[in-house]
Amino acid sequence: MADGVRCWCQHCSRELEPSHTGECPYCGKSGKRCEAIALVGVGVVVSTKVKAKLKKEGKTVKEVTQRGHKKSHDTKSEHGAVDEISVVDREVFPPMWHQVVKDSRTGEVTHDEHVPLDQKRRNNRGN
């Protein structure tokens, strides 16, 4: 097989070089059939999200969200996917928001933030 192309005589089915022209050296008839072979690789990326809540007396006191292999919006991210863990902890005073983001391939921490929950909410509103 040369360059992903295989050829055969259309009469006796013996394999011929793709560059061969004229009569078949085996049966003496003219006519050649060829096929091109292309191999394509397809990658699949699985992204996961798990959310858990701890409730006490009917109120949520802790929320944990874990996202695996999430698309990164960080232009500096080498691989484009991150693992992220976010925690809202209302069992402490003041209530806190924690987030740790790691590169999915290297495990390098790319973001590590721990702030009071009310400050995080103010920042998300653009104030």
Largest sheet: 5 strands, antiparallel
The proportion of residues forming helix, as a percent range, comes to under 10%
Give, in order, the helices and strands.
EEEEEEEEH
Number of strands: 8
Number of domains: 2
Mean pLDDT: 82
Number of helices: 1
Side by side, the strands of the main sheet go 4-5-6-7-8
- What Rg, in angstroms, do the CA atoms define? 30 Å
β-strand amount: over 45%
What kind of assembly state do the chains in view correspond to? single chain
Q: Note the overall shape.
A: rod-shaped
**Spans of at least 5 consecutive residues with low confidence:** none
Structural class: mainly beta
> Termini distance?
66 Å
Describe the structure.
The chain is mainly β. The protein has 2 domains: 5-36, no CATH class; 48-124. It is 6% helix and 46% strand. It is built from 1 helix and 8 strands. A hairpin with a 5-residue loop joins strand 7 (96-103) and strand 8.
Outline the secondary-structure elements.
Elements: E1 5-9, E2 15-16, E3 32-36, E4 48-56, E5 59-71, E6 81-89, E7 96-103, E8 109-116, H1 117-124
Antiparallel strand pairs: 1-2, 1-3, 4-5, 5-6, 6-7, 7-8
